[in-house]
Structure formats: structure tokens, C-alpha cells
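seq/struct pair 1
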Amino acid sequence: MSGKGIYVGGTLLSILLSLLLYAQGKRESAIFVGLWAPTILNLGQSLIDQED
């Protein structure tokens, strides 16, 4: 898996976890975990830009 793939995979996992928490009625936790997605993408982009 490439460097970008790791961050995209982490983003997808956070979204799926957020949906799972929401389905279980844990709305506040779902929102918190859902906010990880853009953070992971930004972190990944920053680290990949530094490598270039």
C-alpha cells in the first residue's frame, strides 16, 4: 500500500466507524470520530508534500 493509500484507508475507516457509532445511537462519539477524516487527510497531504 502506498503512502497515500494508508491515509485514504485511515480516512475511510474513520468514516465507517463514525457511521457504526451513529447507528448504535452514540451520536456525540460519531461526530467526534467523523471529524478525524479531514484531519487524517490533511496530515497525510502534509507529510507527502514534505517527502517531495
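seq/struct pair 2
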Amino acid sequence: MIRTAVGCGTPSGLQLSRNGLGAVECGRADFLAMQSPPYAPRLTFNGDGEITEVAGRYHP
């Protein structure tokens, strides 16, 4: 799962979690099409060491 602060998915506009992480779910294709990658993302891993979530931090 990929979550961004703006620019991907619905709802649009700035959506943040309480710790400043992106809250808008973003599909892989939409994420790869974004002009700028997320700033200092938080990565979440499963027990096999695979990334299960990418949450970009809001950076104006």
C-alpha cells in the first residue's frame, strides 16, 4: 500500500495522518507517474522483510 499527502487518488487535496504522513491511498501506477517522489517516507515491513506500506511525509 502506498499513501501520499497530495496528488494521488481520492479524496484529493492535502490529507495527513496525525504524525504528518500521507493518508491518501495511491495505486502503484499512479505513484510511479508522480512528478516527485515522497519526502523521507516511512516504510513498513512484514516478517519476511518485504515492504508492505510506503507513507510519504508532507513536505511543502
